[in-house]
């Protein structure tokens, strides 16, 4: 089933409307955003693409960033739409498995920093730092820190997984 985002998308004027649409179309929307599951798309990119291709289904990154400037009680709750889309995608065995697989793949940043890790034995990816301990067994040390910007547990786990993959070369698909 092909979803035509520009002409067939309903007016998403409420979370209820989004939920109703996604109950029937989440897998088709995900197929559109991943070119029939032929591309591994990370959550951040998936949400940006959805905002562009399905106007109103999820907010734009700019709208969410603007809302972050407000206190919780003053927010409109724009990020709820993100949760609805992701919940429906993850509820689909086919689309959900593909999204999880996509998130477990090394990020572009981890791949770009692989040579640095191989050369120096250490790499700092922001909230995750990896270093070899240099002892006989040469254990990999993963250090995680809280950052000034909120990072979800899923993102932290994904960064650690990517860093581990970059360090070991093991693909755990």
Textual characterization of the structure:
The protein has 2 domains: 15-104, Methane Monooxygenase Hydroxylase, Chain G, domain 1, CATH 1.20.58; 108-168, no CATH class. The protein has helices at 15-33, 43-53, 61-67, 79-91, 93-104, 108-112, 114-120, 153-168; strands at 122-124, 128-132, 140-144. The mean pLDDT is 80. Helices cover 52% and strands 8% of the residues. The chain has 8 helices and 3 strands; from the N terminus they run αααααααβββα. The chain starts with 14 loop residues before the first helix and ends in a 5-residue tail after the last helix. By secondary structure, the protein is mainly α.
How would you summarize the topology of this molecule?
Blueprint: H1 15-33, H2 43-53, H3 61-67, H4 79-91, H5 93-104, H6 108-112, H7 114-120, E1 122-124, E2 128-132, E3 140-144, H8 153-168
Antiparallel strand pairs: 1-2, 2-3
Give a quick precis of the structure.
The protein has 173 residues and is mostly helical. The chain contains eight helices and three strands, in the order H-H-H-H-H-H-H-E-E-E-H. It has a three-stranded antiparallel β-sheet with strand order 1-2-3.
